Amino acid sequence: MENSKVKRGAFNLLSISTSVIAVVLVFNVFVQSSPADNIEEEIKEGDFFDNFKERYSIYALPMPDSLYFAGERVPLERTYVRESFDRELLVNTYWQSQTLLLIKRANRYFPVIEPILEDNDLPDDFKYLALIESGFMERVISPAGAVGIWQFLTGTARDYGLVVNNQVDERYHLEKSTVAAADYLKDSYERYDSWTMSAAAYNAGRRGMNRQIDRQKSDCYYELLLNEETSRYIFRILAIKEILNDPQKYGFNLTEKDLYPVIPTYDMEITETIDDIADFAQEHGATYKEVKDLNPWLRTTSLTVASGEKYIIKMPKEDAFKVNEKK
Description:
Elements: H1 2-30, H2 39-45, H3 47-50, H4 52-55, E1 68-69, E2 72-73, H5 79-94, H6 96-119, H7 126-134, H8 154-159, H9 174-192, H10 195-204, H11 206-216, H12 228-245, E3 265-270, H13 277-283, H14 288-294, E4 311-316
Antiparallel strand pairs: 1-2, 3-4
Helix pairs in contact: 5-12, 6-9, 7-12, 9-10, 10-11, 10-12, 13-14
């Protein structure tokens, strides 16, 4: 019995030592440090953890002197405004994998969204709103049932002219949903006379924002006490804007080759029913996946086209999905 205890104790000690060494080895994969063959010796001598600060450091981030959203000044001189922005800047800087993906995807979607915003007299900063809404994941669905890049609910989408039925859901149509979002935001601006409040209302809904304005007797976003999501919303946009405007400043190092490219396509006018999208794709030198990825608003395996109707489907150009190694 006593011998068994000794064996178990020795085994546990060995397991703990092995675990410590394993953690240190993994640590050294990600942090520049001494060669791996010196690790056990360092642990025995106690040098490893003594030198921990020299191996890895996390820094507070410098705050910008001034900050604007859609031309509207952010009152960084207020402690709660400054600290709210600092929180989102830290979260998005140190959640490196997520922010790297946002930077990569923005290169694909911003060139499509920017001219639509400009044509519809909407400030360019609203492209960052779309980015935080969906992460530029075209098929994302929120717990409330909002979908697409701009995260429209069914009722609001239909109110702003988007078709939503069992075969076609234009909330997933990048260009059309961007126009609808621009119209919604411009209507909000007419109500609030503030792009900042219009952006906040995009998250909370106009009814929700109106209720808080009446309750708190203020129509300034930065003065309102709001729910957790909406109170962080504008600051998330501002943080992403700050990082994407100068990624290297915040430690993100990418080359042009790392960014996701715009997929070259051409438009095909459809005036007759497509019985099988897979057959249609193959007839035009594409795959079912490629056609559906380029047109996520097609919700089934077919497309019914009534007399007098027409649809525009994006088709991939030759070698559209081929990786360009020359960049």
